[in-house]
Amino acid sequence: MPRAFHRTSLMPLLGVLLLSSCGDERAFPVRTYNMGEKVELGHINYQVFETQWLTHMGEGADARVPQQRYFLVRIAAINSGGADVMVPTMSIQDDSGTVYNELSDGTGVPEWAGYLRSVKPALAARGNIIFDAPPRHYKLKVTDESGERTALIDIPLNFGAETPEIVSPGLGRDQEKK
To answer: Which residues make beta-bridge pairs with 139?
Structure first.
């Protein structure tokens, strides 16, 4: 009987330990930041500068075509610690909860930040990261070097292209505006 008594006395202790581990999530709430704001997570400071949508990269037989669209996000991930850190891979999530992971192949990506990013103290991984996703409003999920703290960066849908001026056939630009 002492063995059964011992098991039953451990059950409440186990429950307390499980409940206390759930409280850790409240210690590090997931905040949402606007694009352009500095995000400090652990020893990594993130900042998103701009985005770009592409239908392809490269030309001719060397063209690289996505399943949806290529979504480039220009970032800086600065190491504020005293030792080298690995900047974790990132993902984007749309408003319906669909997640798209960062692509590991940067072939043809201008100023690619790389996929495995080891950053020395006081330096940064800078450049574009790439996703294959449909054009939508997204939040970029970033984490600290241990993966314990998470933040979201709100990225509005923006194609960044100006609408070209349309001229009707047979009319000059001056006549079109009248």
So the answer is: 93, 154
Pairing, β 150-155 against β 31-34: parallel
Residue 142 corresponds to which tokens in the numbers above? 């970033």
Q: What is the pLDDT of residues 78-102, one digit of tens each?
A: 999 999 999 999 999 999 999 999 9
Output the CA torsion 136→115→51→149 (10° steps). 70
Q: Which CATH class is domain 26-160?
A: mainly beta
**pLDDT for residue 144 is more than 50:** yes
What percent of the chain clears pLDDT 70, i.e. is strictly above it? 74
**Domain range list for the chain:** 26-160
User: At 99, phi and psi to the nearest 5?
Assistant: -110, 135
| Sign, Cα dihedral of 60, 63, 68, 70 | negative
User: 């990013």: which residue's tokens?
Assistant: 117
pLDDT band at 126 (very low <50, low <70, confident <90, very high): very high
Radius of gyration of the chain (CA): 24
Identity of the residue numbered 69: R
